[in-house]
Amino acid sequence: MNDTSHHDDRIAKMTFASVYPHYLAKVEKKGRTKDELHRVIEWLTGYNEEKLQALMEAKVTFEKFFQHATLNPNAHLITGVICGYRVEEITNPLTQKARYLDKLVDELAKGRKLEKIMRVA
């Protein structure tokens, strides 16, 4: 894999609040709801809607966002390509978590069932 240190640093410094509106617009454009988006985010991070709102108001970076998250034990089951990289092969833990979230948002926007997105048996 190419050196992605500049990319990793950019993701770490980006605020969750700056990206969230893009996630919401992407899923709503495809007929999904804010509630579904929040369910997927909560599944991955453990953050409920109230905590998400507080994190956005505090303008936390992705680094802080994932530092305090309780990553779902099944997150490692998220596989596939996002932004040209296979999420399961990303070596930087923070970048991988951010790409997990990107992948889940993509799956939601593509109409995948919530049970499949949340890797429920």
Overall geometric form: globular
Rg over CA atoms: 14 Å
Can you give the helix content as a percent range? 55-70%
Number of domains: 1
> Beta-strand level of the residues, as a percent range?
under 5%
What pattern of helices and strands is seen along the backbone? HHHHHEEHH
| Overall average residue pLDDT | 93
**What's the CATH architecture name?**
Orthogonal Bundle
From the structure above, extract its key features.
single chain; 2 strands; two-stranded antiparallel sheet; 121 residues; globular; mainly alpha; Helicase, Ruva Protein, domain 3
Ordered list of secondary-structure elements with their pairings:
Blueprint: H1 5-13, H2 16-29, H3 34-45, H4 49-57, H5 62-67, E1 81-82, E2 85-86, H6 93-109, H7 114-117
Antiparallel strand pairs: 1-2
How would you explain this protein's 3D organization?
- It comes from Chitinophaga japonensis (Flexibacter japonensis).
- Pfam families: DUF2200 (PF09966).
- This is DUF2200 domain-containing protein.
- The longest helix is centred in the last third of the chain and has 17 residues, at 93-109.
- Strand 1 and strand 2 form a beta hairpin.
- The chain is 59% helix and 3% strand.
- The chain has a two-stranded antiparallel sheet with strand order 1-2.
- It contains seven helices and two strands.
- The chain has 121 residues and is mainly α.
- The protein has one domain (5-117): Helicase, Ruva Protein, domain 3.
Short summary:
With 121 residues, the protein is mainly α.
